[in-house]
Amino acid sequence: MVQSTLLPCQKHLFRLPDGVHYINCATRSPSSQAVEQAGHDALTRHANPFGLRPDDFFDGSASVRDKFAQLINLPDPERVALIPSVSYGMAIVARNLSRKPGIRAGQQIVLVGDEFPSDVYAWDRVTAELGLTIRTVPMPTGFPKGPRWNEQLLDAITPDTALVVVPPAHWMYGTRFDLVAVGQRAREVGAWLAVDGTQSVGALPFDWQAVQPDVLICAGYKWLMGPYSMGLACFGPAFDDGIPLEESWMNRLDSNQFHRLMDYQSAYRPKAYRYNVGEQTHFIQMPMLDAALTQLLDWQPARIQEYTEALMAPVWSELETLGCHVDPVDGTVGRAHHLVGLWLPEQADPMTVAQVLHERQVSVSARSGVLRIAPHLYNTPEDAQALVDALHIALR
């Protein structure tokens, strides 16, 4: 008999209070006790900097890069950069777009509809400078949405495409995009592929070698379960000799040799190091992100998907009796399990519904015309039932 790999609930590893039903990891993850303790330990060390070595400025980020590379099947951790936000990472892409081979006026940047603002605002200046236009592929009407949205996205990628910006799963709706197919199409037409993995990586399997993006950018405080204002970005070979946003001394060759810092060095450390944000060490936050990645490598994103699928499966069928709707599961083009857009009945106001849920200690997000429901391993069947009970009240 084959033993099930389904993880048990991990709520015991968190400090979430009883009676609070936090189904909202897509807004911000709670810190596990291990991440919390890593922060406390780092603060204690920070109180006495005696004995701090030059290599201490670099070792923490090396560990985080290694673990993140393992998480996404990236063979080379030197392709990982430390960034403060998705907007910072997308700004690097925008700054280097003029260097892309074959770039020309009249080409397009392809986006999916209702994308997060950081993935939209990044292109305003560069489109004007290079004579590019934005092509947005809107969410289809009706259900199921996923297969048609994927098909329309692929159709939009043509030889006139300079850049494709797409997430593994939509940040509001949870609709999955087949990034292996998108990456192949982008390479066929000579377009760059930039992936915002913030709302997926850590909870949904991501395979760098299969997708082959030019850039993957992730904020750290959602599904990576780390601290706010830290993120990770992976840059492919197209960016190896690119232009960074800032000229940090730490990103230069031999910058750990503090006794030689006045021997100014024009050469950068290899690959993605040039894109690291200044003061990348983050003595307090880096150990927290390291602890979070250690836990994710143990859990594994595929098992998070399995757990959230099993946890929420009874919920969707019951909510459909209230007139709600979710897009069906359909492999790489259906909906994810860790982030699900729940379309409410037409007459319902999502903000009002979310407020009723909040009053009953159920935390989800209202985004546009949907409720965004984002469970994780710390959620229990009681949390799922509390959501159902609260929606019965809110929609009656």
UniProtKB/TrEMBL annotation:
<dbReference type="GO" id="GO:0008483">
    <property type="term" value="F:transaminase activity"/>
</dbReference>
<feature type="domain" description="Aminotransferase class V">
    <location>
        <begin position="61"/>
        <end position="366"/>
    </location>
</feature>
<dbReference type="InterPro" id="IPR015422">
    <property type="entry name" value="PyrdxlP-dep_Trfase_small"/>
</dbReference>
<keyword id="KW-0663">Pyridoxal phosphate</keyword>
<dbReference type="InterPro" id="IPR000192">
    <property type="entry name" value="Aminotrans_V_dom"/>
</dbReference>
<dbReference type="Pfam" id="PF00266">
    <property type="entry name" value="Aminotran_5"/>
</dbReference>
<dbReference type="InterPro" id="IPR015421">
    <property type="entry name" value="PyrdxlP-dep_Trfase_major"/>
</dbReference>
<keyword id="KW-0032">Aminotransferase</keyword>
<protein>
    <submittedName>
        <fullName>Aminotransferase class V-fold PLP-dependent enzyme</fullName>
    </submittedName>
</protein>
<dbReference type="InterPro" id="IPR015424">
    <property type="entry name" value="PyrdxlP-dep_Trfase"/>
</dbReference>
<keyword id="KW-0808">Transferase</keyword>
